[in-house]
Hints:
Blueprint: H1 14-66, E1 75-77, E2 80-83, E3 88-91, E4 103-106, H2 109-114, E5 126-128, H3 134-138, E6 148-157, E7 160-165, E8 177-181, E9 183-190, E10 193-200, E11 214-217, E12 225-229, E13 237-246, E14 252-261
Antiparallel strand pairs: 1-2, 2-9, 3-8, 4-7, 5-6, 5-8, 6-7, 9-10, 10-11, 12-13, 13-14
Transmembrane segments: 12-36
Protein name: Type II secretion system protein
Pfam families: N_methyl (PF07963)
Amino acid sequence: MINSFKHKQAGFTLVELVTVIILLGVVGTFSSRFIADNVVLYQSSVNQNERLNDARFVLNRMAKELDSAIAFSVRVDGSCMSFVPFNAAGQYLNSVAREIDPIQLIMDPVSRKLGGDATGTFVDQRISVLTTSAADFYDIPEVADDSIATIQSYIASGSQATLTLDYPLDRDSAASRYFIAESKVRYCLSAGQLRRSQVLLTESFPLLISTSGVLMADNLSTESSMSLTNASQFSNAILELDFRFLLRDGNEIKFEHQVVMSNVP
Length: 265
């Protein structure tokens, strides 16, 4: 006797297959959107961090440099800010007003550590005593004020130094304060960039600001600006920095920073 067996085969119906396909499509759509949104969010976060690092670098750099700026030398001309950093500062001991005798002064801490080796360090650099006009720092040597002169000799001895000038200074400082400098620095905003240039006091800054100097920051909005409250005999110079960095999504991050340059007459 031959037994015949009917095998019952299990499977999916067409309705079940269509349902699964639809569900997979819905899940895939939402998953892709979720992944895409997270990718955009990640890229935006990276871009913001890049701009934040750029802003932190340039603001810290400018603030650090301006710590050694002669307060009255700071000026803002259009989209550019210039200043004269001092190499040494301190007090002189004898009157310098219209004196042809050598000037006796107390050396700055850095030069003092060098002792006698500091002799000749500042020859051909400029000494400033109570210079109250920024233009006088930048007009050297043609029409400079008589509060600035060139150092011809610098002899160090102990904590003091003796120096001679190319011509006498015309005034004394109330605090017998002097500054010695040899260069000037300029920061310019142009074409979405911030550039830095540095030249000797006897030289002129490059005329083309959009390509000259070192690139310090880019991706800046045209709304970025620098403004200055000038120093006076009784107040400090205050520089307002308003830098706006552009993001890839078209938005911008605004950074406002204030730098105070102490005025020691």
